[in-house]
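agent> fetching stored inputs for the adenosine-5'-diphosphate docking request
agent> found them:
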Amino acid sequence: MNGPSWFEAGARLAVLTAEPIGRPLDYLAPEGGCFTGAFVEVPLGPRKVMGVVWGPGDGRFDAAKLRPVIRVLDVAPMRDELREFLIRMGAYTMTSLPAMLRLATRTPGLFDAPGMRKVYRLGDRLPERMTEAREKVLGVLHDHGGAGFYLNELAQLAGVTPQVVKGLAQAGAIIEAEVPRDAPYPRLDPTLPGKALSDDQETGAKALRAGAGRYGTYLLKGVTGSGKTEVYLEAVAECLRQGRQALVLLPEIALTSEFLTRVEARFGARPGEWHSGATQSERRRLWKMCGEGGVQLVVGARSALFLPFRDLGLIVVDEEHDTSYKQEEGALYSARDMAVLRASLCGAQVVLASATPSLESWVNAEQGKYTRVDLKSRFGASELPEMAAIDMRKERIEAAHWISPRLVGEVLQRIRNGEQAMLFLNRRGYAPVTICRACGHQIGCDHCDARMVEHRFLKRLVCHQCGETKPIPTECPSCKAEGRLAPVGPGVERLAEEVAERFPDARLAVLSSDLFGSARALKDAIGTIAEGGADIIIGTQIVAKGHNFPKLTLVGVIDADLGLQGSDLRAAERTFQLMRQVAGRAGRAEKPGVALLQTYQPEHPVIRAILGGDEEAFWREEAEARRAQGVPPYGRMAGIILSGPEVEPLFQIGSELARRAEPLTRIGAQLFGPAPAPIARVRGRHRVRMLVKADKTAPLQAALKAWVRQVKLPNAVRLQIDIDPQSF
Ligand code: ADP
Ligand code: ZN
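agent> prediction call returned; pasting tokens
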């Protein structure tokens, strides 16, 4: 990281590329020189690739043999802070530097020449001749509105040829526009007055403002509806007033237009948006404007953490406990933890917001590493929902039905009052198991260690692990009996059937991620519900998060015990968070809400804690249990996943690693496994996992590196290291 920040023409320098080479390569600085951090194009064999000037070359190579950089790209150089972040995060997560660079430069077209560009937008008339292909194009434009698409991007999204798009432009149904490539975003005005805050909120906002402009982590804890968003927007305002940039991270699913509209109302202009639904051109513009300071506030999903901000002063991680912050493919990292790392490097404040923080953050606050800011009550008149259990052992319920008579009665009452009721079941599809009534065979996935889930809506069986689908067979694949296959257990689709049967006059809305073709369609459905366009809402996990349904006064949890099975040490924490989040949907406006949990074990300690026991006591007990086991956040863990087409070699390699555990034992670490991974087979690949547990201060990464280096992996076998695994 040290060394000159300017290289004269012809000086030796090292360039990091995103190619899987492992280390920066040496080149000569181009005509006119370049800065450290400059984005450059370099020759690599016969190809040209993009790279970042990483520092001085190491002098090992004969200068006469080095090739010069081809050109310096017209974007802001990568700042030291971001380079340092990629290095440190790479070291922590044991991800190679090129892979880290890929995370930071993944947007296609990032380095195309600047200037004007042509985009296609929706026009105001329909073409005389409508075809299916044309409809698709107009559909995409209609769904996205705003910014417009590049020709090829639009064609690809619509699944048509570019000619179709051009034809529509000729017919005047869509507009071709020349726009400056990467214009700055409209200015946000942080001096606009926010909402008048309650005393509680004002105290919180004051605490956050006091820490603005420098590194420090705040845990903003407050029940759903307490106004956490209002409070952290005050921290954003303070950051913007100081002239620095702010980033708000949200779980992808919570990135709704409702949220953006709220930010717009607060600051008078829309922030930059970064998520998988954003168009290429929007992402490119945002990436560049981050570097040039042409955007003050970015609202984004986890990968926004790698944007090249010019001067990042604040990172908010909303719903910080959300499991979707953990990236589970490619580079394995926790966006929440990495946000804290990045903030420490650029001198930014961090605000972690949640109604049900992760145990890790709770402990960090207990230990004084994070500053805790509590919002104790809901804002205004709205009250926290009353929570109670429905003891399913005492309810009389027909076979293949899941809604208890008591819950039915409660729902009916809400409908009569013109209110909404929500039934929550954290299981997608129609039925989790399809069983043959003749031989007992259960239909499984051909590629994974999972049962196929029937989806009536799709009319197929679906594997929830790998996404594989197949038609629902009429005969049993095992005993060939005809017509004996039967669904067992409920999924949301089956629950919807029961609801339709019991409440024939009610308007239903089913919210499950796979019932919607696009994020936009889901957002629309959520908007409709918020406006009162449904009486009963049936949903999976996606309804638990962040949505605001003012007419909702009853939440019924169909199976509160669902998450408590299994041996995962996080099961209690997860169930507690999920149940509290779901319950928090009820009674957000003037009317009080009720949450009813159907359970077969009402005396289970987790169920009791959820039902309004002493929350802090629950966290203390959880923390104590973790401490006793020496697991995070009191100890360190790493998962080692071996995957390959055959299971036997994986166990062999695992056993060999276990025999050569000396590098681990030397740091006092313990090794568990090899054992089948929690997900033992995915997409035809078997997975075997080992777990390493070490003291908080042990040099875990170095030991892991020395340890795994000892065995040579066959080509078909892949070894992945997961620092701080989600389940243990
Ligand atoms: P949380 O993020 O804690 O769930 P929100 O910030 O979304 O809570 O606030 C819940 C609701 O209360 C929102 O509709 C919000 O607009 C409203 N609200 C919160 N604080 C205020 C305030 N000070 N003045 C007016 N409305 C507020
Ligand atoms: Zn599968």
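agent> quick read of the result: The two ends are 36 Å apart (CA to CA).
agent> awaiting further instructions
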